[in-house]
Specification:
The protein is mainly α. The protein is built from 19 helices and no strands. α2 packs antiparallel against α8 and α5 runs antiparallel to α8. The N and C termini lie far apart (about 45 Å).
Length: about 425
């Protein structure tokens, strides 16, 4: 009990605002962790499901990419807490519709409009989520807050995919999506207890002028845009190979349960690294961002080589740890360096660049697999992913950026 009380007396959890935000975020993450497995195998069971899966995933990410820059500007103008709450309610409704379609056996083509709605809501939620942390915790607690969020995300990814795999094998994936819908409604209720000041636009700038201001800051920092450029190429590879071809390969080999456990073990790596990052300082966070994310290419290579399932699981575990270190290092760097009034816009440009080619990767994954073989595409994708992750570190100014330099950022770095 004393240890539990001490957690709430110091650190990020001492803020009641953060506790409510963190509670809602954790609940929604547990629900969302089930959906990728539940939805993928539900679609694959339908007629032409293998051809539809990439398109459904792309139809969610595409509107998110197209609306991200608007979402970032809106998040810098409005109260981020209310924007997140509204997005949670909307996502709860769209996931309810998806669950109903899957459970009733309706045409999977009805999933497309709901995926588009969900993606559009994400365009406003994502910049607000990344921008709200400096408003509800002190600057010195930002890395801890990000580590706690990643720990919750990782725990959810340990439990969610495995449960979803069992639900798919037992009663069908629709129930996993239904649980996700409920989690969004509960998260919205938690966000109703978070209250932060509104962002009144005192200079009278239009939204277009605000977007230009965010772009000017973004392009003047080489350490930001060079990392974003790398993820522009890496993310479509990972999403195409891991999110689309992964379930396809699994369906014809070790099945939904094996795939769900693999994703859960990747989340174990995420969780362990998240807890470690509560204590580990990051002297060179940009170098850590790219070195750590490079490990995510390994399970793609293992998947492509047709190695035994335990080998794939261990590779996923390692990749999960690397992904967490990378995400925490990157988000903390942005949140400490970028002024709060610009943060959502700069994060929106980062997200826009990182996500813009993901739909292409998801759409092309199956055709490329048909042309060259699923396993060959997975192997080549993993190798390319690692090479691209390491390219920004060839720039000495990026490689040697320290936490102190980031904290006193100036244009051109």
């Amino acid at each position: 009990m004393p240890m539990k009380m001490s957690l709430f007396k110091s650190g990020a959890l001492s803020s009641s605002q953060f506790r409510w935000f963190y509670g809602g975020r954790t609940i929604s993450l547990f629900g969302s962790a089930m959906t990728p497995v539940a939805l993928a195998f539900a679609v694959l069971e339908t007629r032409h499901g293998q051809d539809l899966l990439g398109g459904i995933l792309a139809s969610e990410i595409l509107p998110m990419v197209l609306l991200l820059l608007i979402g970032g500007s809106v998040a810098d103008r409005m109260r981020r807490d209310r924007l997140i709450q509204i997005s949670n309610l909307g996502s709860g409704l769209s996931q309810t519709g998806m669950a109903a379609i899957v459970l009733t056996g309706a045409s999977p083509y009805w999933l497309f409009p709901l995926a588009i709605v969900d993606g559009g809501l994400g365009a406003f939620a994502s910049p607000a989520m990344r921008g709200i942390i400096p408003e509800i915790v002190d600057r010195g607690m930002i890395k801890e807050a990000n580590s706690l969020q990643n720990a919750a995300r990782s725990t959810a990814r340990v439990v969610g995919p495995a449960v979803a795999g069992l639900l798919v094998a037992g009663v069908g994936g629709g129930w996993g999506i239904a649980i996700d819908a409920l989690s969004f409604f509960l998260a919205a209720a938690c966000m109703s207890r978070v209250h932060i000041p509104s962002h009144a636009v005192v200079d009278g700038n239009s939204m277009l002028q605000q977007m230009r201001e965010g772009w000017s800051y973004f392009r003047s920092r080489r350490w930001i845009w060079s990392i974003t450029a790398a993820f522009t190429l890496m993310n479509p590879i990972q999403m195409g190979v891991w999110q689309v071809l992964g379930p396809v390969i699994a369906r014809h080999s070790f099945g939904s349960v094996g795939w769900g456990i693999t994703l859960s073990l990747k989340a174990v790596g995420l969780l362990v690294a998240s807890l470690a990052m509560l204590r580990v300082p990051l002297r060179r966070p940009i170098r850590a961002t790219m070195l750590a994310i490079a490990f995510s290419g390994i399970p793609m290579i293992v998947l492509g080589q047709g190695s035994a399932l335990p080998v794939l699981m261990m590779a996923a575990l390692l990749a999960g740890g690397g992904s967490t270190v990378s995400g925490i290092a990157w988000d903390t760097s942005l949140q400490q360096a970028v002024p709060t009034k610009l943060l959502s816009r700069v994060c929106a440009f980062d997200d826009f660049g990182s996500y813009i080619l993901i739909p292409l990767g998801e759409i092309l994954a199956v055709p490329l697999g048909d042309l060259f073989g699923n396993r060959a595409v997975a192997t080549f994708g993993g190798i390319a992913f690692i090479v691209i992750a390491l390219l920004p570190l060839l720039d000495r100014s990026v490689r040697q950026m320290t936490a102190e330099n980031i904290g006193h950022d100036s244009p051109g770095r």
